[in-house]
Specification:
With about 140 residues, the protein is mainly alpha-helical. The chain has helices at about 5-15, 20-25, 35-40, 55-70, 75-95, 105, 120-135. About 30% of the residues are buried.
């Protein structure tokens, strides 16, 4: 059976954007159809439609953590706290290796400018998958 990480990288290599790749890599465990996941992530690639803002893979991971821990009703304060804690933990873990969550900043780490949808992106996808594999 294919791992979540393998499926994520396969989807990325098939030219889905980073957000779509992460959502497609993990969405089956939430019983969400692939076409829904692909459409949901469509606008997040390149740091939200190529603007270089928050990385699409980071956005997708946050969405998945919300699916796992998110509150199911407006008054569900315990699940809201769990969600906030899970997302803060994810962002803190990511900040150990990256100074920013923004696509443009991640792609320019180390002084070299990498294009969107590059091997640098694939490395970040693997890092995010490692976190999600332990926390979803």
């Amino acid at each position: 059976m294919q791992s979540h990480k393998q499926k994520t990288i396969e989807q990325f290599n098939a030219h889905y954007n980073c957000a779509q790749a992460v959502l497609l890599g993990y969405g089956a465990q939430f019983a969400l159809p692939e076409h829904t996941l692909a459409r949901l992530g469509a606008g997040f690639g390149g740091g939200i439609v190529g603007t270089g803002n928050m990385c699409g893979a980071v956005n997708a991971a946050i969405m998945l953590l919300g699916l796992k821990y998110g509150q199911k009703s407006p008054n569900d304060i315990d699940d809201k706290r769990k969600t906030v804690a899970a997302i803060k933990d994810f962002l803190a873990e990511l900040s150990k290796n990256h100074q920013s969550n923004n696509c443009r900043d991640i792609l320019s780490e180390g002084g070299a400018a990498h294009p969107m949808h590059s091997p640098k992106c694939a490395m970040l996808l693997e890092e995010i998958c490692d976190y999600l594999d332990s926390n979803l």
